[in-house]
Amino acid sequence: GNLNTEELWLALSACNIQLSKEAVENVRRCYDRDHSGVFEFDEFIQLLVECQLYDQCFEARLHQPSILTPLNRSNPMLGVSHVSAASGLITLDKTAFFSMVFAVPRNL
């Protein structure tokens, strides 16, 4: 089957990924490779794989801040120290993080 934007929003919400309707529309545009206007099975699987990778990196970084992940370029192992909380660093929760990731349409 296929998912329209509303159904995609519900599916992501069921996976505990809360995004605005605009962000979900950006997701649909990014992954809708055949420009059919709906999410087909293979497009949905690709999205879920990417979301799972982001989720694993987010959780790993949350539980072990020094771990090197694609989300952590300023790692002490690379010779760059972490920024202290007093420096005005903003910490994102998972919903804010996913909203930021999918806020801007992109070509895959």
What does this structure look like?
- This protein is an all-alpha fold and 108 residues long.
- Helices cover 48% and strands 0% of the residues.
- It has helices at 5-14, 21-31, 41-63, 94-101.
- The longest helix is centred in the middle third of the chain and has 23 residues, at 41-63.
- The chain is elongated and about 40 Å long.
- The two termini are 22 Å apart.
- Mean pLDDT is 75; it is low at 75-83.
Number of strands: 0
Q: End-to-end span in angstroms? A: 22 Å
Give the rounded overall mean pLDDT: 75
How many whole angstroms does the radius of gyration measure? 16 Å
**Which ranges are low-confidence, i.e. pLDDT below 50, for 5 or more consecutive residues?**
75-83
Shape: elongated
Quick overview of this protein structure:
The protein is mostly helical and 108 residues long. It contains 4 helices and no strands. Helix 1 packs across helix 2 (21-31).
Structure keywords:
108 residues; mainly alpha; 0% strand
Task: Give the SSE map.
Layout: H1 5-14, H2 21-31, H3 41-63, H4 94-101
